[in-house]
Amino acid sequence: MSRLDSFINRMSAQRDLLNHVRDHGDLPEEGPVFEIGLGNGRTFSHLRECFGGRRIIAFDRKLASHASATPEPENFVEGEIRETGQAFVGKNAALVHADIGTGYPDVDAVTLTWLPQMVAGMLAPGGVAVSGLPLDHADLQPLPRLESIQEGRYFHYRRR
Ligand SMILES: C[S@@+](CC[C@H](N)C(=O)[O-])C[C@H]1O[C@@H](n2cnc3c(N)ncnc32)[C@H](O)[C@@H]1O
Q1: Contact partners, residue 23, CB within 8 Å, separation at least 6
Q2: Which among 118, 130, 120, 98 is positioned nearest to 20, based on CA atoms?
Q3: Sheet of 155-159: strands edge to edge?
Q4: Does ligand 1 come within 6 angstroms of the Cβ of 41?
Q5: To test ligand 1's pocket by mutation, which of 36, 61, 82 has the most ligand atoms within 8 angstroms of CB?
Q6: What percent of the chain shows pLDDT beyond 70?
Q7: 134 in helix, strand or coil?
Q8: Is 42 close to ligand 1, i.e. is its CB under 6 Å away?
Q9: Domain of 97, in residue numbers
Q10: Contact yes or no for 9/69 (Cβ under 8 A)
């Protein structure tokens, strides 16, 4: 598969899953949304459309989002998420979306030494995680794959 096709698959899987959570996610009534990996802000912009009633806090090592998709300063957390995210463990997020996979297995393996634990800790019971990397953690119950999404492409979980 070309990298272009792979990218398009990832983006459509991400959008389909976030729309699914918006429509059928049964999220906790209260609680913020965390966007782990703000990047250009495309997903942040989509999260704002889907979950506009909630506070959305975005994380990245540096701010590089499009002007139209940049969080308010109080809703952006700059720095290495492995460190900055610790302060948000126990904050009872309703939804955590993480898009920090690199496509390099060795780099992603390091990320996976801390990301699942952090995401599980950020979520409220019943909250949902949506991630481009698999989050293998005892407190995260895998949810059924959507038909439109290829096996292993994008993942979602409910916090037990
Ligand atoms: C694939 S991009 C996210 C794209 C985003 N969903 C969008 O719509 O533009 C991943 C982003 O996560 C950030 N990132 C990856 N790993 C990180 C880490 N460990 N700490 C902080 N930021 C990280 C990168 O700087 C990059 O901007």
Answers
A1: none
A2: 130
A3: 76-78, 56-60, 33-36, 93-98, 123-131, 155-159, 140-142
A4: yes
A5: 61
A6: 100
A7: coil
A8: yes
A9: 3-159
A10: no
Q: Quick one: CA dihedral 17, 22, 28, 31, positive or negative?
A: positive
CATH of the domain at 83: 3.40.50.150
- Residue with CA at minimum distance from ligand 1 atom 2: 39
Check pocket membership of 36 for ligand 1, CB cut-off 6 A.
Answer: no
Say if ligand 1 is within 6 A of residue 104 CB: no
Give per-residue pLDDT as tens, 112-158.
999 999 999 999 999 999 999 999 999 999 999 999 999 999 999 99
pLDDT tens profile 39-71: 999 999 999 999 999 999 999 999 999 999 999
Q: Taking residues 63-92, report their average pLDDT.
A: 98
